[in-house]
Design brief:
heterodimer, A: mainly alpha, 4 helices, 0% strand, B: mainly alpha, 11 helices
Chain lengths: 100, 234
C-alpha cells in the first residue's frame, strides 16, 4: 500500500475507534437498569472527570496558568456564569503575559 | 435516576441552536487549538488534506495530538490505534454518564447525536439536562460548533501556522481548563461531592507520572465514581 493510502486508512481507523468510544458508554448502559447505586456512581463520575482534568492541568501548570484557573473558580462561584469565568481567566493569563 | 428527571427527552433543531449558542464563545477559542494542531501536523509530515480530514473525522484534540507522536516512517498503526483508544476511553465514561437521557431516544438518533460527543459539549449538556433542558439537540449543536471551529483552526494552522507566532500572550491556552473548572464549580452540590473530587484529583495527579497519557483521567473518573457510591451508602 502506498504511504498516502496507509495514512488515510490510519485516519479512518482513528475515526472509527474514536466513534466507538463515543457510542459505547450509552450502548452498554442500555443493558443496565439504573439503580440508585449506579446513579450515585454516574453522578460522582461526572464531577470526577472534570475535577481530574483540572487537577492534571494544575499539577503541570505554572503560576500563571494556575492563577487563571483559580480566578475562573472564584468568578464562577460568584457569578454562576461559565462564560464570565472563562473570560476572567483568559484576561488574567493575557495580562500576566503582557506584564511579566 | 427518578423517571421524572429523564422523561420527555427530545432531539430538536431548537435544542441544537441553544447548544451552539451556549458553546459558541468557547468554540471560537477552539480555533487557536486547531491552529496549533495544524501547524504541528505539518511539521510532522502530515499533508494539509490529511490534517483537515483527521480533524473533521476524528474530532478529538487529545487523540490527534497523541497520533502525531507516532507519525513517521512506516506508520505503527496498531500502537497508534491503541493510544487513540486509551485517550478515548474517557468518552466511554461520558457517554455512560449521559445515558439516562440519551437512551430515551431511539438508537439511530442516539448513534447520530453521539458522533459529536466531546469533553466540552458533554459538560454543557450534562449541566443542561440536570437543569431540565432535556434536549439532546444541545449536545449536537454544541458539538457541531466545536467540530467546525476545530477543523477551521486546523485549516488555518496548516496554511499559516508557522507565521502566527505564540498565542499564549492572549491567554487562550488557559480557556479549556478554566471552562472545566467553572462547570465543576457549577455542578457542585455540597459535601457529597467532596470525597469523589478529592479521590479523583489525587488519582489524576499520581497517575500523571505512573500511567500512559490519558489513563490517569479514566482511572480518576472511575475511582471518583466508586468514592461517590461509598459516600452514598455509608
Amino acid at each position: 500500500m502506498s504511504a498516502e493510502a496507509t495514512a488515510y486508512l490510519t485516519i479512518f481507523l482513528m475515526a472509527a475507534v474514536t466513534y466507538g468510544t463515543r457510542i459505547l458508554g450509552a450502548e452498554l448502559m442500555s443493558f443496565i437498569r439504573i439503580t440508585p447505586r449506579i446513579e450515585a456512581f454516574l453522578k460522582s463520575m461526572a464531577i470526577s472527570v472534570m475535577v481530574a482534568i483540572v487537577a492534571s492541568a494544575v499539577a503541570q501548570g505554572g503560576f500563571r496558568e494556575n492563577t487563571a484557573t483559580l480566578v475562573a473558580v472564584a468568578v464562577m462561584a460568584v457569578t454562576r456564569s461559565a462564560i464570565a469565568a472563562v473570560t476572567a481567566a483568559m484576561a488574567t493569563a493575557a495580562a500576566w503575559s503582557w506584564l511579566i | 435516576m427518578p423517571n421524572s428527571q429523564t422523561a420527555n427527552v427530545q432531539l430538536t433543531m431548537a435544542g441544537a441552536v441553544r447548544g451552539a449558542r451556549s458553546l459558541g464563545p468557547i468554540s471560537l477559542f477552539v480555533i487557536p487549538f486547531g491552529i496549533a494542531f495544524g501547524a504541528a501536523a505539518i511539521e510532522r509530515g502530515v499533508t494539509p488534506d490529511q490534517s483537515i480530514a483527521m480533524s473533521l473525522s476524528v474530532f478529538s484534540a487529545a487523540a490527534q495530538f497523541a497520533a502525531l507522536d507516532f507519525w513517521e516512517g512506516p506508520l505503527p498503526t496498531l500502537s497508534l490505534l491503541l493510544t487513540v483508544l486509551a485517550v478515548g476511553t474517557r468518552l466511554i465514561l461520558m457517554g455512560a454518564t449521559l445515558a439516562p437521557w440519551l437512551n430515551r431516544l431511539s438508537r439511530p438518533k442516539r448513534l447520530l447525536a453521539l458522533s459529536v460527543l466531546s469533553d466540552v459539549n458533554f459538560a454543557d449538556s450534562y449541566d443542561a439536562f440536570r437543569r431540565d433542558d432535556r434536549d439532546v439537540g444541545r449536545l449536537v449543536g454544541g458539538g457541531l460548533a466545536l467540530c467546525i471551529c476545530w477543523a477551521l483552526g486546523t485549516a488555518i494552522g496548516v496554511i499559516a501556522g508557522a507565521s502566527l507566532g505564540n498565542l499564549e500572550r492572549f491567554g487562550i491556552d488557559v480557556v479549556m481548563v478554566a471552562f472545566f473548572a467553572a462547570i465543576a464549580v457549577g455542578q457542585w452540590e455540597g459535601l457529597q461531592d467532596l470525597l469523589p473530587s478529592l479521590v479523583a484529583a489525587t488519582v489524576a495527579v499520581l497517575g500523571l507520572t505512573l500511567l500512559p497519557p490519558g489513563w490517569n483521567i479514566v482511572l480518576a473518573a472511575i475511582a471518583g465514581g466508586i468514592a461517590g457510591v461509598l459516600w452514598h451508602e455509608c
